[in-house]
Amino acid sequence: MTSAAPAEDPEERVGLSSNAAGRPVPSAWARARGRVRLEDPFIGWTASIGVALLALFLRLWHLGRPHIFEFDETYYAKDAWSLAHFGYVREYVDKANDNILNGQTTGQWKDDPSMIVHPEVGKWLIALGEKTFGMDPFGWRIAAAVVGSLMVLVMCRLARRLTGSTALGIVAGLLLSLDGLHFVLSRLALLDIFVAFFVLCGVHCIVADRDWHRAKMARLTPEQVTGDRAWGPVRRLLFRPWLLLGGICWGLACGSKWEAIYPLAAFGILVWLWSSGARRSFGVRWPILKSAVVDGIPAFVHLVLVGLVVYVATWTGWLMHANQYEEHLSATQYTHYAGGHDWPTRTEPDAHGFGEVTQSLRSLWYYHQDVYTFHTHFLNDSTHTYASKPLGWLILNRPVGVAADTGIQPGTQGCEAPTGSDCLRQVLLLGNPTIWWGGVLALVFAAVMWIGARDWRFGIAVVGTLSTWLPWLQYDDRPIFSFYAIVTLPFIIIALTLAIGSLIGPSTEPSRRRTVGVIVSGAYVVLALLNFAWFWPIWTDQLLTHSEWLDRIWFSRWI
Hints:
The chain is mainly alpha-helical. Among the domains are: about 120 residues, no CATH class; about 60 residues, no CATH class; about 170 residues, no CATH class. It is about 55% helix and about 5% strand. A three-stranded antiparallel β-sheet has the order 5-6-7. It has a two-stranded antiparallel sheet with strand order 1-2. A hairpin with a 5-residue loop joins strand 1 and strand 2. Helix 6 runs parallel beside helix 9, helix 7 runs antiparallel to helix 18 and helix 9 packs antiparallel against helix 10. The chain starts with 13 loop residues before the first strand and ends in a 7-residue tail after the last helix.
């Protein structure tokens, strides 16, 4: 490959390809400088924050109702309170739920540690809400409401970065805020909204790093790289700040739930492939192999090693009380499952100084082995009313009922049902059908565009969906639930947003295509809004007659 003439401005060079309008495609240098800002950043931030505040308002509305422990809140709310007050999770007494709901929080926890089977980041965040607002339903749900609303903000910013359009960024944020799965999980003290938030933040950092890496490579490479031995810039690209921030986010994601490991691995590979593609565009030969060394190793350090350090740090409370776990939980049914043995640290003398740190870390490792056994083997062949197969999650095959008050008779609690009927209240973890069913079609379109048109942005939707959804297939012989797909939802939203952008087209000039695209896309968003309003009562514990409830339960599997 020959180098360009020295007098030529790299930003004015063009390749041999032409776009649909017949204009030459800009060179790697021009593309790497970053996309043109079509809107003022102030407008972009203001609009994004506005959508997030709207989402927060909806999620705070009657957040403390129903005044019960909904579904697995019975574990996480009490675990969070225990973390905040004792530094580690303790067992609780019988009838602790009733006592707590009646305002009594003292004397509800025992001294022995509890065998928790999920990491602690989400529970620490729940604890922050409880410390601020009290040990009641509002207190243990407020953290989820805030984090869910922040997730909407991140969604707006990521979609805007991918499309260069503030309007499309707002569409993405609105669709996320109008989904029932996201809405209900943002009003529950469960861990899934936290892992979904940190995964989305981690992906946003990786996408921002792609722009940063290419822009800096353009500044460091004033002319085409030549020669088989050329590597392109290396030393000044070893530190990548966006990947460092991403490593922190991925560490917090894994510290919420282990399922974040799969998308971390998938997007880590994308970082390597994107980096090699950047080097290829600047003339580096054998870019995949070379990038594996000069880009892959630093990316591994930034994402995996930094993430590992952050993950271990999230267990600080556990480590500071490791002696409690060594004494009480080093010889449980999980430890002995399939011929396992007690933790070696159980009978070791207590170490001191640095030795105590390493001993506690070893105990944490043995604890992780027990938790892994619980998740992968101990629950095999168990059953649950709301369990579902992952293959049907994206089409909403089986929602999860997290609260219900049935059999409310006419004339009581405001029930105005006709004679012979009754009323009920329910909180159902069910996605917005418009978003999920339309999202499945958008994902098919994304796969076509990623492979056929080689548009890297659609690859984010495809890789994100596959890496957060398909791994659950290996665990479908134990009870798992459709709301785990909340981590997949942002990638469905990205696919929908990119599809809407393709439908409208890149040109801002008036045209028949743009008019039709805007009408169809607008109608879709309005339909999602109408669906949100229709299902609002069964997402927010509203009083319904039995017939009104059945109008919203479209399939027998939704009961």
